[in-house]
Specification:
Length: 252
Amino acid sequence: MGSITKTLLIIVCSIISFVGISQKRNNFKAKEVYKSKDLIVTQIAPNSFEHVSFLQTNDFGYVPCNGLIVRNSNEVIVFDTPTNNKSAEELIKWIQETLHCKIDAIIPTHFHDDCLGGLKAFDESNIPSYAYVKTIELAKANNYAVPQNSFSDSLVLRVGKEYIVAKFFGEGYTKDNVVGYFPSEKVMFGGCLIKELDASKGYLGDANLAEWSNTVEKVKQSYPQVKLIIPGHGAYGNQKLLDYTIKLFKVQ
């Protein structure tokens, strides 16, 4: 066999292998990996997990609240705490004992209870917390648990050999809502800035309705490659969640 033929064969085999790996990633089937009365964890990609806890509200009843866990090299970063310290302790224990991972950081994406209600449990486990500067200001003003470290526009943190980005794109659901992104799996945590498909507008007490749609437009433009998007409440999906949210809050 000539050297040119050998080279071509190696290239073809490499392409087939790459396509196979790519298809395997794209065909990942989500599965529930933990469930209790207070906490549900669903693996939505090889190294991305949605965590769901619950919050009793006056206007909307018993509300499921989403967060995201991303993993690489036995390290994880968590976006949003569960809604209370008991559920947060449960999540921390599951990550450490089942995933066998070190938690590098917790990142609340805005100042409400469904994002930092369990922050004390992370503090007591010596897990660093990071939040947008306005989230820290609003948490202090409302006498909530306060994240330890602030960022003014965006934050990049290593998780194993990969990294995450948390970024403020503008006001919408609140004055401080940020979006999390895990580039290696193209997974976004939109938090309460992003609505599930067919959702109502929901709670608007801290919202900037004039800017909400414009802010999500910026998110869409910044992450055209995103594959999975987790909203603050409800079912995760694809880029259609961005389009739906933009349309829902479009100023006429």
